[in-house]
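REQUEST ID: PR-0412
SUBMITTED BY: lab tech R.K.
PRIORITY: routine
TASK: structure prediction, single protein chain
INPUT:
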Amino acid sequence: MTSVNGVLYGTTANGGTHNHGTVFTITTSGTEKLLHSFGGGNDGGGPLAGLIAVSGALYGTTSSGGLDQHGTVFKITTSAVKSTVYSFTGTGGSKPYAKLTDVNGVLYGTTEHGGSANEGTVFSVPL
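STATUS: complete
OUTPUT:
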């Protein structure tokens, strides 16, 4: 879970309208709201890692979907506007599982598969 202005944000790997996972918000008093239901395909699916907050937006990864079906890095605003920042290609990584890290406006993470030996990669995506 990630907190922004006292509100908690998280993901589910499954569920939602298309059963490809969700991004949700929940207050500390228990009021829950669905922000995004992943549709699979280009939208991505299966967000397994947590979200990070960077400059008022939330960033995360999906373990599947995207243009080449290898997963995505996505951005979602607290008002539920979602966009894909990066789609994995397989050679540049596949199936990101770990939470992202922001270093001076560049997101870093790891993938479980992909890369030259198909044993995973360390990747960076500038914001």
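NOTES: The first strand starts at residue 2 and ends at 4.
REVIEWED BY: pending
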